[in-house]
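Internal ticket - ligand job 508, guanosine-5'-diphosphate:
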Amino acid sequence: DIDHVYEALMNTALDIDLLEPESPLDDVWIKEVLKKSGMKYKRTQVKQDKVRENKDAVRRPEADPAFLIPRWPVVTIMGHVDHGKTTLLDKLRKTQVAAMEAGGITQHIGAFLVSLPSGEKITFLDTPGHAAFSAMRARGAHLTDIIILVVAAEDGIMKQTVESIQHAQNAQVPIILAINKCDKPEADPERVKKELLTYDVVCEEYGGDIQAVHISALKGDNLMALVEATVALAEILELRGDPTGLVEAIVVESRTDKGKGPVTTAIIKRGTLRKGAVLVAGKSWAKVRLLFDENGKTINDACPSMPVEIIGWKDLPSAGDEILEVESEQRAREVVDWRKYAEEQEKLKEDSKVIGTKRKEHQDSHRRVREKLGSLTWKEREFIKYQEIKKQNIRHKEKTEDLNTLPIIIKGDVDGSVEAILNIIDTYDATDECKLDLIHFGVGDINENDINLAETFNGVVYGFSVNASKVIQQLAVKKGVRIKLHNIIYRLVEDLQEELSGKLTPSM
Ligand code: GDP
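stdout (structure tokens):
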């Protein structure tokens, strides 16, 4: 409706092209709205992308290979439900804590680090596999270096096993196969490997390059072999990271801590994160106050592949959000403001699309009516209508009074203005409280026929940019018919609304 679009317009500086008219009729309508808003009708289009370039924070270009240093792998565990992902993660986490000093608290923060006696390290993502993985992929964030595919040896390939394989293949992330529950008597790991051939997952013994490890997550059997296989694959992948420059990271978990406030766990992709850094993520920003490792110990810096808890956020970013370091707090505010604004623009765009579709539907319905009547002259149409009206006269009169309807007659100066008003009226028709009953519409000054119709139906005659002669006005007074003349569409519409609400009250 007109007010909605008006509001949208007032909030819209960049996207005036949203209302790019589809027909000259829209032009009339939009011009009316703009007249109301006091804005100039200008069809400039500012490309949001251009603006974004200046206002949003973006990833830096790829680093010079000379700056890259080796980094350890980030691993996601995937597989069908109940095949043992959680058990495996728990075991790995506990092993890690046991390997360190006694009494380490295992806290779920979304990621953890396993350090081998050899000094090798692996970062495990500890978030519900598929959802987090998809969320990150959807945001274009590539975080996982290796996927450990857990398949229960007694169950074999199931629906989510296949999905996991597809995720891995689409993202081109290499797989290590963990055949779990091998402690069970009915376990059949060889069958699992054979079945996987169908999905292009070819284990080493079938001539492929997928390592398969038989484990029991429950008993902790062979977990070391799994970890070693992961390290071996990471070596082949020659993973490298850039420890210099502005930090880039990915949020893997986000929560509000009673003591610490908004906390995120992130994995560093690039740069070295230190206290005092200013970060943006989603529509939030942070001046880093504290950094913790997954055991809750404060740390001073975090390099690529490291999971780290970050304290200092103004709001809570979401899992999967990309973290980017910016030069200053002012810049962070600017970026966040811009993102909020851009999001609003997106919403408005959606809203306008909905409005646009609705209006199109109304226009179409009127177009159909006009086509039906199109071959007739105005006189013929009015005659036919008059005949019909005569027939239904009494019945209709009773009905209209019953149903809280407001019978109206619309006259306008040109076809376009009449149709514009009809479009708006259609939107009011949607509300059931009080119905507008369009008795007649047409182009030209108010005439005797209009007054007669209005008398018959106890209706009101609305004119847009048309006249009613003295004679007609006197006739109207004599017959008790009200004529309402307007030169601005929205005034006419407001008037209609008032009439409607007036109709509504007495009978309630
Ligand atoms: P998730 O849904 O993939 O996270 O699976 P869970 O880790 O929750 O495991 C599902 C069930 O399988 C639990 O009852 C586990 O105790 C059990 N389970 C997991 N790993 C093993 C294993 O290696 N051997 C046996 N016998 N049971 C296991």
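Auto-summary: Residues 12-25, 42-52, 100-105 have pLDDT under 50 and may be disordered. The longest strand covers residues 248-257.
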